[in-house]
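Hi support team,

I submitted a single chain yesterday and got back a structure, but I'm not sure I'm reading the token output correctly. Could someone confirm the output below corresponds to the sequence I sent? I've pasted both exactly as they appear in my results page.

Thanks,
R.
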Amino acid sequence: FIYLFWGEGGKLEKVCTNVVANAKITEALLKERDKQAKWNGIPLLLQKLYEHSHPNSDFSQCQSILKEISPLLSMEAMAFVTEDRKAAQESTFPNTYTFDLFGGVDVISDDLIKDCLSILYNTCICTEGVTRRLAERNDFVLFLFTLMTNKKTFLQTATLIEDILGVKKEMIQLDDIPNLASLVSSFDQQQLANFCRILAVTISELDTGSDDKHTLLAKNAQQKKNLGPSRAEINQATLLNIPGFIERLCKLATRKVSETTGTSSFLQELEEWYTWLDNALVLDALMRVANEEAEQSSTESSDESGLANTSTRTQLPQSMKIMHEIMYKLEVLYVLCVLLMGRQRNQVHKMIAEFKLIPGLNNLFDKLIWRKHSASALVLHGHNQNCDCSPDITLKIQFLRLLQSFSDHHENKYLLLNSQELNELSAISHKANIPEVDAVVNTDRSLVCDGKRGLLTRLLQVMKKEPAESSFRFWQARAVESFLRGTTSYADQMFLLKRGLLEHILYCIVDSECKSRDVLQSYFDLLGELMKFNIDAFKRFNKYINTDEKFQVFLNQINSSLVDSNMLVRCITLSLDRFENQSDAKVAEVLSECRLLSYMSQMSMRMSFLFRLINIIHVQTLTQENVSCLNTSLVILMLARRKEKLPFYLRTLQQMEYTEKYPGFILNNFHSLLRFWQQHYLNKDKDSTCLENSSCISFTYWKETVSILLSPDRTSPCAIVSYIDEAYMDIDRDFSEE
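Hi R., thanks for writing in. Yes, this is the structure output for that exact sequence:
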């Protein structure tokens, strides 16, 4: 039985779903109720569609019916998008709601054609729950991929798949897609770029965007459950096994605007996109901007457009081509970035070096990646020109993230330089009478950047010109810092110091008094890598911070958030220890004059930092972002152990606890933190290598120091328990306890 309920005024309140497919209702009844409920004939059309959608039916009748239904849903979908995606309500979108309620989504199944895709998409974006229901049908999702071989329906299919995968509870396995390698090889470059939007969902770990927000306890527990590779990692490996895949992505990422598709095919594609509302609004707005520019400069021609002989009416303006290319490169760079951070990182590095991704991006830097904005720069619907979501800004951020992933702890980072700059690194090493870095000597000069400046130097130039309020400052600092990470290289540091990087950072921290926590953290981290063990850097620091007032502002910035500045504190501590053990006259002079080194040489200051570093973190709140505070506190104590002062530091911590009138609260917490440290680091080779390289302290010494501190022997002068009175002892609490 089918129950239809109407409220006041004939409004439809509830209908059992699958009406059309599961019951026979007379045409007269449907027509009668249609007038009262204002269904616009949709139930009757669906009944006819169901009758003609069985095997051996006349599918031309289906298409005719679909063409009647499609406009009814398209109007609502357009309203939904243009109203900034306000919460969908049944009363707001009655047509799509009625279509779904009478089983329209279920009627449309394997015999998909263009109009079916359009209807499904419009229903998905307007009616809550439809997308999730489709996502639960794994066979249907995989079937959609087979439709991507049809160029006429590629964009519609890709958009629908992207929406479905975005809500799917379990990530699909790319290996399950029929003939994946053949499918990808059949794509042209534009299709491949759009396919990257789908791939982004299949190769990214869940919640990657908020990685720092998850506690390490939760992550470790999850890793114990998932002993094998994740589905995202399996999908990454699948992509790398597709012949020519990485090479094509590199070509897409580095091709110039003049190499893109001609006018006719792109305008045809634009027409296709018009029915896909998320993207059509962007491209439609862009076309209006482009047409205005074309009218203003109709007599001009562009060397790169290749379209000078076409009329203004059909000519694709250069601004349109640039924005079109930017939106493609966004997707490609994201996929490359994810692959660079995956398990097959070295394999990806080798391939993108071979296919000259970095030199290609260097050649695009001025004209596309960091191009000057025009007065009529495109902005996305519902956003403004300075919004981080605009294509121009998003491309820059994605580019900087790629550089960060590419440079981080990898010898291929020197591909960011050109041959002259590599020679400069060698000259710096020779002048300082130190060995050249092996990676510099072994760099294949045929794969490095060409032109007057390498990519790193170009980045430094725009970094120094960036406005104080710019959202790029954080990402720029992160990208440059990644070049310095790993084993400290004096030549790398001097290369950047000679280009005024230290003075620029200090200006931003002190003179502009930066307020952004994220930007400040990135500057402190970069400053730490730039100055570590480098006496010339400390001399330059003292020359810039040349008054007590400036130095106090600098200290205030450090002390305002130790989570943000602790890596710099670690750098200063390590550097001071090394300088104090050197007998060089230049070092002695800087030691006596540098405000920063003199400040850190005071025992009271080191103890103050140690006390606060331990106090601001707890096992339950440790994240990838703040675990560095634990390691910085360990560095301070390891250096104390070297000088046989570890008992003095522990005793001082005990005294500071009593001063705060809370005996045991610091040392109990530190004991728990060190127990977690053992669990977290002793099974992670990469993490231990990073600790060793960044501190120049062997990981064996790290482990020994932690073991000594955690000794249960209350008679040991280096054991934490020796400094906690039994009445306040609380060291055996399980990590899972709140």
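A quick pointer for reading it: Strands lie at 4-6, 12-15. Let us know if anything else looks off.

Best,
Support desk
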